[in-house]
Specification:
The complex is a heterotrimer of chains A (238), B (331) and C (443). Chain A is α/β, with parallel strands linked by helices. Helix content of chain A is 37%, strand content 25%. Chain A is built from 10 helices and 10 strands. Chain A has helices at residues 42-49, 72-78, 95-102, 111-120, 122-126, 137-149, 167-182, 194-200, 218-223, 225-232, and strands at residues 4-12, 19-26, 31-35, 54-62, 65-66, 80-83, 155-159, 186-190, 203-208, 211-216. Chain C has 18 helices and no strands. In chain C, helix 16 packs across helix 17. Classes of the chains: A alpha/beta (238), B mainly alpha (331), C mainly alpha (443). Chains in contact: A-B, B-C.
């Protein structure tokens, strides 16, 4: 059974819908990557899953339960984590406080999770008393991902985690994403760095105009000449 | 020496009292600004409401035949705080929450708070007329005197002044611990920082909004009662205090609790220093001073005290628009 | 839209006629004069808030300035003042103020001739302090002389009162220009607080400057620009008739001013200038990017609107014939205008006009209505042995403040664009939920 599935989802901010029938399904072991041109509705798809965009038709199921239009603070306890693209830290809170906010919904002790997040992102441990607003872009992205992991999600959704990062950090962040996935967390992410992202993806979705153009494994999409020409720039990767 | 004691009584004591009241009010304004993102113009009236609730409760207590050497107001403050909080939550539910649900802009909420101001003011005057009331109807106000060697005057302050300043300090420390240590306190700061992210982190924003009103209204009731104990209770309380507390909230940097406290005391002291008659300090040297130095040497006449908070506000906005502690970024 | 406006105005007319029958003609004409003056002020606010999106919570201050101007221009010349040293000393104080202003302006420009910034800052502060002390050394003795028992205050200029109305508009415009220069760059909520502060300061000044305004001693009778009831009585009218005729004359004059102002604003609103103003209001960043000088345009609106407030304030004081600075209050003179504009329809002149008349009538009538209500309830409570309600008269006055507060929050909730909304207002960002705004999150 898929961890999350979107069936012909239509939705938007009111007025003309931005999503015109998106189909996505991934399992807990998957890394799903959504790529596509600007305005294709990639970020909107994530927001629709997270209840930030109104869904007017279609179904969104998480572990078989319909979660369309649920409130975010109801989704987090169910096991969804979401890292927005911009403004994804609390700048005046310390790194540790940022992480604690990720565990806000948890009633149990979260010391172990905190330790494992620090293990995954060692720089955060050093800077845990520093304000998140004072960190570099890459470190902020770590804080943001760490914050989402603190809620022990089953599915982690990332909106362009590599945006604005230096190539060194992009590689590091992607490595961490793979590691998180190996730890049993399903990943659904939107990426501009399509080629790199599809390389680690087990499922790939190409969106355009708010609907699926191509769906397949990451490798299939990378090899597809049509996809490569239209969305990856240049011919199929070697 | 007597002149120095006069200075302590008129500047240090008065400044501490005014500063405490402003700080308590400004913290509420700044929190509401930080979490709900609008300037809550009815905050002064919330203070007045708190003071009147204390007044009524102390009447009720007196009516039940309770009497004490202390003013009954002291005993009913906790209950008055609770009632003020309930009133604030009710006002939010009735008037502000529906507008937020519709996605109204902050300016619309600001105008709504003007409506709430008018309703509260109308209601308070409807019930209590325009007269002044004292919380010291049955017992005299205890005045503490500390004799100072070499001075013909004592350092004097009243019992409610002392208690009020102490309660303010306790409230500020408690608030500090709440914001820094508790889960909800941290969540409150998180919402002020980045409401969207707080929401996707699973923080229940409605709950944080309720907490904001609870803290804001509770402190407003304390401040109003403190003011009422120091002088008298009257329906006009609100307007005289609106400008200083908003000035304190803005000067401190909106959303910045510590800034609001510091700026509250700053404005309190600036006001008393501005209207203080500096001529008094020159009195010992009267004989050696030239003729033309007048006996009255206040920076501004008492009637124009209201200008002090305003001038501080405008100067701050011109020199450092984000306030002395960097406040929430401008729209 | 036009039908809706027409129907609402017909309703207003019916209401006025009903009030006329219920309360009598002299009362109704008085009501209309005051409502028309308030309508002028509401148009001023509509220019600032409706066209420009500028907060002005200092309306009371501009009305007070207008009232003062009417007094200063029209009250008789005071011989004792002009025979004393007062004018000369005041003149010196004015010169001192001018000299101080020059020194401050000079200090502000020191960096242009190469002074380093920190030094300039220090000199600026010193300049302000020196100018203030110098001014106080001149003005304090002048005030002492004028406020002596023989003189009291400066009196007026003994000129026709309509000149005072003009002066009221000019003075208010001047003050608005100063405020606008300093504060219009502020974000909207700061502007609201700053204008409240300025109104409080104007209030404190005019109330306490006994030498200029007689302060709490009040000034009366301020003359009318049209014949007074007494004049008609001298011409042979009965007392009732004289009041109707005199007030009707005043009403015609005010309505003529209101009509002219309305016509001009309406023309300006539809002109390219008006469209630009609305563009600035709705998106000043974009307008800025298109090369429009946003600050200068907003200053125009602020000054223009405040001038109307000043004129309205003059008209009201002249009509009431008494200037009592302590009778002004933020609720009765600032917030009520806001209720008028919000309820009527911000951004629509017809709406603001309707709102002004409607709210003023509600305001005035809710006093007798609530008095009647209280008396009735008082009768019941007495009948069941709870005793009568005390102080019914003073309580009834307060009831209307509550009513207006309720009206504005209900309007914001159920008719946020007012009774007669701005045409094409659907795109106004104020009314639309911002996507993913903090407010949306805070539900």
């Amino acid at each position: 059974m898929s961890l999350i599935s979107l069936d012909a989802v239509v939705g938007g901010y009111g007025g003309v819908p931005i999503l015109n029938g998106v189909d996505i399904a991934i399992a807990a072991s998957d890394i799903g990557v959504i790529v596509g041109p600007n305005g294709a509705g990639k970020s909107t798809t994530l927001k629709a899953v997270f209840g930030l965009v109104k869904v007017t038709a279609g179904a969104i199921r998480f572990e078989g339960r319909d979660i369309a239009n649920a409130r975010p603070d109801a989704l987090v306890p169910m096991g969804l984590g979401y890292v927005p693209q911009e403004k994804n830290v609390f700048p005046s809170l310390t790194v540790q406080e940022n992480l604690e906010m990720g565990a806000f919904i948890r009633a149990d002790a979260y010391g172990d999770t905190l330790a494992s997040v620090f293990e995954m992102f060692p720089p955060l441990k050093e800077k845990r008393r520093q304000k998140a607003g004072e960190l570099s872009g890459g470190q902020r992205q770590m804080v943001a991902m760490g914050r989402a992991l603190m809620g022990k999600p089953k599915l982690l959704m990332l909106d362009e985690p590599s945006a604005g990062l230096s190539p060194k950090y992009v590689l590091e962040i992607f490595e961490r994403i793979v590691a998180i996935n190996r730890g049993g967390v399903g990943i659904l992410m939107v990426e501009q760095n399509a080629r790199q992202a599809l390389a680690i993806a087990s499922r790939g979705f190409v969106l355009a105009g708010g609907r699926n153009l191509f769906t397949g494994t990451g490798r299939e999409l990378l090899a597809d000449p049509e996809v490569a020409r239209s969305f990856l720039g240049g011919g199929p990767a070697a | 020496m007597s002149e120095f004691v006069f200075f302590i009584n008129n500047v240090i004591v008065s400044g501490l009292v005014a500063g405490s009241i402003y700080a308590l009010g400004a913290v509420g304004v700044t929190l509401i600004f930080g979490i709900l993102r609008f300037a809550h113009f009815a905050h002064g009236d919330m203070m007045t409401l708190g003071a009147f609730i204390t007044l009524v409760l102390s009447w009720v207590l007196a009516g039940m035949g309770v009497s004490s050497g202390l003013p009954l107001a002291y005993f009913v403050v906790p209950l008055a705080v609770a009632i003020t909080i309930v009133a604030a939550l009710g006002l939010d539910r009735l008037f502000y929450a529906p507008l937020r649900a519709k996605g109204a802009k902050p300016v619309t909420l600001l105008i709504a708070s003007i409506g709430v101001t008018m309703m509260l003011q109308g209601l308070i005057r409807l019930l209590f007329g325009t007269g002044t009331y004292s919380l010291f109807d049955t017992v005299p106000k205890v005045i503490h005197r500390i004799p100072v060697e070499g001075s013909t005057r004592d350092i004097t302050f009243t019992q409610p002044q002392a208690i009020g300043v102490i309660v303010t300090i306790i409230a500020v420390v408690a608030l500090h611990l709440f914001l820094k240590r508790s889960r909800n306190g941290k969540a409150m700061r998180a919402v002020a920082d980045n409401p969207d992210l707080a929401q996707v982190s699973g923080i229940n924003i409605r709950k944080i909004v309720r907490l904001t009103w609870i803290i804001g209204a509770g402190l407003a009731c304390l401040a109003g009662t403190f003011l009422a104990l120091d002088v008298t209770v009257k329906p006009d309380l609100a307007f005289n205090i609106l400008l200083p507390i908003f000035a304190a909230a803005i000067v401190g940097g909106v959303g910045q609790v510590y800034g609001a406290i510091v700026a509250g005391y700053l404005i309190g002291f600036a006001e008393v220093l501005a209207v203080f008659n500096w001529g008094v300090l020159l009195r010992p040297f009267r004989d050696s001073l030239p003729e033309w130095v007048p006996a009255q040497l206040a920076i501004v006449p008492t009637e124009y005290k209201v200008t002090v908070a305003f001038v501080i506000l405008v100067v701050t906005l011109l020199l450092r628009p984000t306030g002395i502690f960097r406040g929430a970024s401008s729209t | 839209m036009i039908r809706r406006a027409l129907l609402l105005y017909l309703g207003l007319f019916a209401l006025i006629v009903a009030v006329g029958f219920a309360m009598g003609a002299p009362f109704t004409v008085r009501l209309l004069v005051e409502a028309a003056a308030y309508a002028l002020i509401a148009l001023g606010l509509n220019i600032q808030w409706g066209f420009g999106g500028l907060f002005n919570f200092g309306i009371m201050g501009f009305m007070m300035i207008g009232g003062f101007a009417a007094v200063f221009m029209a009250m008789p010349v005071s011989a004792p003042f002009w025979d004393s040293d007062g004018p000369w000393m005041l003149g010196k104080a004015l010169l001192a103020a001018g000299a101080g202003a020059l020194v401050i302006l000079g200090a502000n420009r020191l960096h242009r001739i190469g002074f380093p910034k920190p030094l300039q800052r220090t000199l600026q502060v010193i300049a302000w302090i020196a100018a203030y002390i110098f001014f106080r050394t001149q003005i304090d003795p002048a005030i002492a002389v004028i406020e002596s028992r023989e003189i009291g205050w400066v009196g007026g200029l003994g000129l026709p009162v309509w000149l005072g109305w003009v002066l009221g508009g000019l003075l208010a415009a001047g003050v608005a220009w100063l405020i606008g220069k300093a504060c219009l760059g502020l974000r909207s909520d700061y502007l609201a607080i700053a204008t409240i502060g300025i109104a409080e300061i104007i209030f404190a000044l005019l109330k306490n400057m006994d030498w200029l305004t007689r302060g709490t001693l009040t000034v009366s009778p301020v003359p009318w620009p049209v014949p007074l009831p007494q004049q008609y009585q001298a011409w042979g009218s009965t007392i009732d008739e004289s009041f109707i005729y005199a007030r009707a004359g005043y009403l015609l004059l005010v309505l003529a001013i209101l009509g002219a102002v309305f016509f001009l604003i309406q023309r300006a609103y539809g002109s390219p200038w008006g469209r630009m103003m609305r563009a600035i209001r709705d998106n000043h960043i974009a307008a800025d990017a298109m090369g429009k000088d946003v600050r200068a345009r907003q200053l125009q609106l602020f000054v223009l609107g405040s001038a109307l407030m000043g004129i309205g304030g003059s008209i009201l004081i002249s009509f009431a014939q008494i200037y009592d600075p302590s009778s002004y209050s933020t609720v009765n003179h600032t917030f009520i205008i806001w209720v008028m504009v919000i309820v009527g329809g911000a951004g629509n002149n017809l709406g603001a006009l309707l709102g002004a008349f409607l709210i003023y009538i509600v305001w005035i009538l809710s006093e007798p209505v609530s008095q009647w209500l209280f008396t009735t309830i008082s009768g019941w409570t007495e009948a069941i042995g709870w005793g009568a309600i005390p102080d019914i008269t003073s309580r009834s006055v307060q009831m209307r403040v509550f009513v207006l507060g309720l009206v504005i929050v209900l309007a914001l909730r159920f008719a946020p664009r007012g009774l007669i909304p701005e045409i094409g207002a659907g795109r106004r960002p104020q009314d639309q939920p911002k996507q993913e705004s903090p407010d949306e999150a805070v539900q």
